[in-house]
Write a structure and sequence with these properties.
The chain is an all-alpha fold. The chain has helices at 2-16, 22-27, 38-45, 71-84, 91-115, 121-124, 127-132, 138-153, 157-168, 178-187, 191-216, 222-229, 237-240, 250-275, 285-295, 308-314, 318-345, 351-373. The two termini are 27 Å apart.
């Protein structure tokens, strides 16, 4: 699985490499629409060619946002620029340095999934890993969330909390996993485990962020202000259901982006519990993340990577997964065709893109429905050193067992 993962990821990285140059970033020349990667553009937009420290050193005036990412992601970029970006034109060096790092994240994710006995091929061979693995830095949050899940299922609440804290300091979504993990603990009346996990999550996140919040002030808050003020993006249902004629205010959309997935997951929990009493509640992470993406006002292409480990851990059928992945490919092609038209002519025909987004949403909902209707698959974890094969750690009598 490591070899398959490395191959799929590398092919995707090579596919994007023609855009790793200044001509593409500044003039959209020297590449083609579908080789786009945020990694290359952000080398310039985040002003990483010199020694500027994100949040601590002011950004130069620019038409592009700067310091817009959380701390861990920003300082991974900063470190990669020091290693592979020695001068302003070294876009390729910066890109390939990040490719190596992100590839390592993908391999570490697969290692964790294999140790948990998941259907790892659903991550390793996923088309979304191919087209989005080198798109942005989301694989950092993905591996941290997966490590946290691995540690949670091994009964290590401190490590799970630290992993989720670091993951949330890279991208916000890992904080959502505290909810299904806490629900699983509640089912086993392990309140102390939840408290320890949440406490270590908070300590980790604060240790990473507070120094920059104090020293960087308004620069550190930019990622939160930027995302709060962003309108719905073309990749989302907010735009697709109205074919780009949405009218609701951003504040209400912000509220609904969180309220809808929480309410939907509570409903799904009740239905799943009736159909499969005693199912492992930590698996609610899958419908929670799926509905969060469907309801969110932002669905950047690489966000689809968040779901891959959860398909590997909880998918009950391959056919819905394959159909959903094919829809992701359709969105990939239609998205960059649309933005190529916008960049060339100032506008584009959004209809085909909207249809692709609607189809993707429908197939992801199908995946959730199938997950609810079918019994949770049984994991066959690799035993830890010193734990006999087939044994379950005393602290986790039901976490790895399924219905």
């Amino acid at each position: 699985m490591l070899l398959l993962t490395g191959t799929v990821f590398t092919v995707g990285a090579v596919q994007k490499s023609p855009c790793a140059n200044r001509a593409w970033v500044e003039h959209r020349e020297g590449g083609y629409a579908h080789c786009y990667s945020d990694v290359t553009d952000l080398y310039e937009w985040e002003q990483l060619a010199g020694g500027r420290l994100p949040y601590l050193d002011a950004c130069r005036p620019s038409p592009h946002p700067c310091d817009e990412y959380p701390v861990v992601s920003m300082y991974v970029m900063r470190a990669a620029a020091w290693v592979g970006g020695n001068h302003p034109d070294d876009f390729a060096g910066f890109y390939w340095t990040n490719v190596v790092l992100l590839g390592m994240c993908a391999l570490a994710t697969v290692w964790c999934l294999e140790r948990l006995g998941a259907r790892t091929i659903l991550f390793a061979a996923a088309p979304t890993l191919l087209v989005y693995g080198a798109m942005n830095w989301d694989l950092i949050a993905v591996v941290l969330a997966t490590v946290a899940t691995y540690l949670f299922l091994r009964g290590r609440r401190t490590g799970a909390g630290v992993g989720l804290g670091l993951g949330t300091a890279a991208k916000v979504y890992p904080v959502l996993l505290l909810l299904p993990f806490a629900a699983d603990d509640a089912g086993r009346k392990d309140l102390r485990g939840t408290i320890r996990m949440v406490a270590w999550f908070a300590v980790t996140w604060l240790v990473v962020n507070v120094p920059f919040a104090i020293a960087g002030g308004r620069s550190w808050t930019k990622t939160f202000r930027f995302n709060a003020l962003r309108p719905p993006e073309p990749d989302t249902l907010w735009r697709a259901v109205t074919f780009d004629h949405w009218s609701m205010g951003t504040l209400w959309i912000n509220i609904l982006s969180f309220a809808i997935p929480l309410a939907a997951t509570l409903l799904i929990w009740r239905v799943k519990e009736r159909r499969e009493p005693g199912f492992p509640r930590w698996t609610l992470a899958f419908p929670l993340l799926a509905t969060f993406l469907l309801a969110n006002k932002i669905w950047s292409p690489q966000y689809s990577l968040w779901l891959l480990p959860w398909f590997a851990l909880t998918a009950t059928s391959t056919i819905p997964f394959v159909a959903y992945q094919l829809a992701e490919l359709l969105v990939f092609f239609e998205r960059f065709e649309y933005f190529a038209q916008v960049n060339s002519h100032g506008s584009g025909d959004y209809r085909a893109f909207a249809v692709a987004v609607l189809l993707r949403a429908a197939l992801l909902l199908w995946c959730v429905v199938v997950w609810v209707r079918r019994p949770t698959p049984r994991l066959t974890p690799v035993p830890e050193a010193g734990v006999p094969t087939g044994a379950v750690r005393p602290a986790e009598p039901s976490s790895l067992a399924t219905g």
